[in-house]
Amino acid sequence: MNQRLDGIKRRIRDVPDFPKPGIVFKDWMPLLSDPAALRDAVALLAEPFQNERIDQVVGMEARGFLLGVPLALELSAGFVPVRKPGKLPSETHAVDYELEYGSDTLEMHTDALQAGQRILIVDDLLATGGTAEATVQLVKRAKGHVVACVFLIELDFLAGRNKLPVDRVHSVLHY
After folding, report:
1. Residue 58: in which H helix or E strand, if any?
2. Domain boundaries, the chain
3. What is the pLDDT of residues 92-142, one digit of tens each?
4. HEC string for 24-39
5. Which of the residues are catalytic?
6. If you count DSSP H runs as helices and E runs as strands, how many of each does the chain have, helices first?
7. 68: which strand partners?
8. Which of 51, 59, 109, 146 has its CA 20 to 30 A from that of 45?
9. Average pLDDT, integer, range 21-26
10. Is it true that domain 52-174 has CATH number 3.40.50.2020?
């Protein structure tokens, strides 16, 4: 396990003062160029849920898409995108939310989930928890059951997991 985590960590770089001064951005885009490390990252995201029924993986635009689709395949589940306003062509649920440096809105098709489906929410990073909390609200509006929220990276010092109205939060890496 430590060897797998080390391989993933080596592909994450710190970018100071992005997107604004004082923030150190955890850039995991180099992970995408390393098939073995990417495979390990997806496997470690999926591992706690391998023996559970997951009907749909819900991922947030845009980095949650990059992890969500392979995670859905790993778990033999479908994938549902959550997008910024105006990007989905059919009727949507919408939620406004606050994030660490501003506010935004997320949308999901109203027919994307069936009532009672078991949902795994995935994103690349858990910081203050606003994006994930908004996504949980969207899933609950669609009457889905959130099994857990999963993240590649969690910034523990921001305590975002405390904001999430779910029983389980799983993160591969902690900073």
Report:
1. strand 56-60
2. 52-174
3. 999 998 766 678 999 999 999 999 999 999 999 999 899 999 999 999 999
4. EEEECHHHHHCHHHHH
5. 63, 100
6. 4, 9
7. none
8. 109
9. 94
10. yes
Residues 6+ away with beta carbon under 8 Å from 166? 121, 136, 146, 148, 149
What pLDDT sits at residue 28? 98
Per-residue pLDDT, 143:
97
- Tell me if the pTM is above 0.90: yes
Q: What letter represents residue 143's amino acid?
A: K
Distance CA 106, CA 52 (A): 27
Cβ distance 92 to 109 under 8 Å?
Answer: yes
Instruction: Beginning with the edge strand found earlier in the chain, give each strand of the sheet holding 145-154 in spatial order.
Output: 78-82, 56-60, 118-126, 145-154, 169-174
Helix, strand, or coil (residue 7): helix
